[in-house]
Amino acid sequence: MTAVTALCYGVKAQNIQNNPGSNHGNKFEQLGTILPTPNEYRTASGAPGPKYWQQRADYDIKCELDETNLKLTGSETITYWNNSPNTLTYLWLQLDENQHSSVNNANYQSSSTLPRQLNINAIERAEEMRTDNGYGHQITKISDATTGKALKYTINKTMMRVELPSELKPGQQFKFAISWNYKIADRFKYGGRGGYEYFPEDGNYLFTIAQWYPRLCVYSDFQGWQNHQFTGRGEFALTFGNFKVQMTVPADHVVGSTGECQNYAQVLTPTQLARYTKAQSSKEPIEIVTLEEAKKAEGSKSKSKKTWIFKANNVRDFAWTSSRKFVWDAMPALVEGKKVMCMSFYGKEAYGLYRKYSTKAVAHTIKSYSKFTIPYPYPVAQSVEASNGMEYPMICFNYGRTEKDGSYSEAIKYGMLGVIIHEVGHNFFPMIINSDERQWSWMDEGLNSFVEYLTEELWDNKFPVRGKGPAWAIVDYMKLPKDQLEPIMSNSENIVGFGPNAYTKPATGLNMLRETIMGRELFDYAFREYARRWAFKHPEPADFFRTMEDASGEDLDWFWRGWFYGTDPCDIAIDSVKYYKADANANLRQMGDTVIARKLDRPMGSNNPDVSKDRNREDKNIQFYTDQDTTLRDFYWRYARGMEPIDTTTYQVPIPAFAEPLDEEDKAKVANKFFYEVFFSNKGGLVMPLIVEWTYKDGTKEVDRIPAQVWRLNEQRVTKTFVKDKEVVSVKLDPMRETADIDESNNTWGTMPPPSKFTVFKQKQQVRGQSTGINPMQKAEEKKKGF
Ligand SMILES: [Zn+2]
User: Which residues contact 470 (CB under 8 A, 6 or more apart)?
Assistant: First the structure.
């Protein structure tokens, strides 16, 4: 039900026109009912309302990693807080690991083709899918934590409904326990975000443990339970809560995790603990586990176990990694005076890149994002090299390995920096500003890609950013035929061009707003305000759209409509340019000394039928005021009734002198001005500002920026006049390629016509409403005088 609503509003905005068939009244209309109606949970300003609420789920988890059998076994106690105004009779939990299960996998809907060359893994996987492949969450027990009584549950692919033993009323909590286990999948064979990577050279594993525990769905004011299936694409919608997690792993493993470790003293050697203490005030990353130690551990493979204990508060998810291959380094970053431990975990394969860059990229990212959003609120931020790119609170998995000799290409280096900045940046979107990723990919990927771009630009002025910022980089996508495009406001599962739609186009749009449409000051303030308002809450698209306008004073509905709800590209053309010079010596007499006077003799309105007047006149109960009080009657009262003779003479009346020739000073003012009339047309459909570059005869250039609102009264054609001090030789539209114009061949005008002349005169001040002719009262007076 909720999905239908959500999908509809994307479609509606695109297709329903306010003024169909007209050249105006469509693109600049307010979004109105396309946005959800504001209420006391979410206000019209885009801020959370006075009765805003959200649910909470706290987890206490114990688990054990069985490296020999590649299995994870866990038990968890969940405390669920019903902060909603509604009574609940069941809870929905996510079993994301069922993504890999051939019997509980929601991902049947994907089409597939048979390529000419096929990896043997793919054939094995296809074969396994024909029977139960044994993957997915095995639920062994669910019980009420207070009474110990078993709870009924139903699994629907990747979703599980747990029946509450009694109604959970507003303000109440419910504590329950789940025991589970699953077979850990080979991430390189089965895909997905969590799993293991096997290193045949040294016989070791690197585990990335993610989407690993049964966890609560979001129950919200805007859609009730978010229980759409996990197909592997649309990411996650999660509830905030506090976590305590104890993971028992092989004794020689190093664990990196969401949260802060509570027992380093037990799991680290005294030397490592001393290094960790030293790292807390270091200016450079310090190795807590060195490369030599990691290499040594790779060979020994301990059979004993150790338990690491982590705690994390106010997080929406929890992930961790475990391997004996890890080198581990750390240094603090100061974010607005608060110390954040930045740490990295990586194998020898990535040492040449990660040792130098990873922890510093983490520090740069949280500092930069803190400037554009809110100060990073968590105590740690970590980057793990796991040959992928995936984000979790305080920890993320990235790529970037060197050649055997330690060398690397430029592409790998910048790819690594890009992915670390991106995944660490996800701490802000969606880990803290906690949007619903399963519904709206752009709200996390788009916003995050945009700040990633800003952060990369601050890393190095020559950072080779691809997409995610400059408008011209989205042009090839905007040019695609309509059946390969969908609005940014589309459900995650329904997107064809996932990269450009969810990442690049929204990020580019925000950069256009910042650089081209709003300016940095207005944009940055509003964007920060959005982050501030929705930190540790669940924002929806309307909350973003509304806040950006509310905090900046810019009406951006036209932009949301065109860029987020539509697929039209920008293609503005210069159709022609006219060139004028002023003629300051024009003979003003040509402008007409006299005109033939209008025939003013007919009383006003006397020709117009008026049923209301007729009926009033016939109504004997009505007495008109000018009959009650005859002093109200004047010349025109009599005149309208034919009591004054009607004069049919045509008068030659002099035009009052509203114009006079220019004086020398004024002539000088216009003599050296050049006037250009430029005719623009909107061929693409998307409205955008007009950015006009002038090249003068002397070779200099100048740029005029006209806001997009210039298209308000005609969304297809616009004419604009410009006054210049120098003669122009050519005109160019969008010289910095800021509007993603898909056809730049119509953006220039290089042949100037010879100048046409227009007349300039000086206007005398006129009083509004003052007649410029002769009125019937004056005429009647003149008649009396005998003229
Ligand atoms: Zn991302």
Answer: 508, 511, 737
* Distance between CA atoms of residues 318 and 123, nearest Å: 33
Strands (DSSP E) found in 274-372: 286-289, 305-315, 320-323, 327-335, 338-346
Q: 756-759 and 572-583: which strand pairing? A: parallel
Residues 698/712, Cβ–Cβ less than 8 Å: no
Q: How far is the CA of 391 from the centre of ligand 1 (A)?
A: 7
Cα–ligand 1 centroid distance for 413 (angstroms): 18
Whole-number pLDDT of residue 89: 98
Q: What is the pLDDT of residues 757-787, one digit of tens each?
A: 887 777 666 556 555 566 777 777 777 776 5
Q: How close is the Cα of 350 to the center of ligand 1, in Å? A: 21
Q: What is the mean pLDDT of residues 495-500?
A: 92
Average pLDDT, the chain: 90
Q: What is the Å distance from ligand 1's center to 469 Cα? A: 15
> What was the pLDDT predicted at 2?
29
Say if CB 723 and CB 675 are below 8 A apart.
Answer: yes
Q: Whole-angstrom Cα distance, residue 465 to residue 462? A: 8
b/e per residue 563-583 (b: at least 16 CB within 10 A): bbbbbbbbbbbbeebebbbbe
Q: Say whether pLDDT at 279 is over 70.
A: yes
Per-residue pLDDT band for 414 (boundaries 50, 70, 90) equals very high
Full-model pTM: 0.86
Tell me the backbone φ, ψ of residue 403, rounded to 5 degrees. Answer: -70, 170
C-beta separation of 289 from 254 below 8 A: yes
Q: What CA–CA distances, in Å, run from 755 to 579, 622, 675, 698, 758?
A: 5, 65, 9, 18, 10
pLDDT, tens digit (0-9, with 9 covering 90-100), for 65-117: 999 999 999 999 999 999 999 999 999 999 999 998 888 875 666 677 777 77
- 694 or 466, higher pLDDT: 694
CA distances in angstroms from 184 to 61, 87, 157, 196, listed in the order given = 18, 37, 18, 7
Distance 445 CA to ligand 1 centre (A): 5
CA of 503 to the centre of ligand 1 (A): 8
Rounded Cα gap, residues 431 and 437, in angstroms: 10
* DSSP class of 537: B
Expressed in angstroms and rounded, the spacing between residue 125 Cα and the centre of ligand 1 is 27
Residue 730 CB-density burial (10 A; 0-12 exposed, 13-18 middle, 19+ buried): middle
**What does R_g of the chain's alpha carbons equal in angstroms?**
36
Question: Omega before 430 cis (within 30°)?
Answer: yes
Residue 591: pLDDT band with limits 50, 70, 90: very low
**Cα of 342 to ligand 1 centre, how many Å?**
20
Query: For residue 615, what pLDDT is reported?
Result: 82
The number of CA neighbours under 13 Å toward the Cβ of 246 is 10
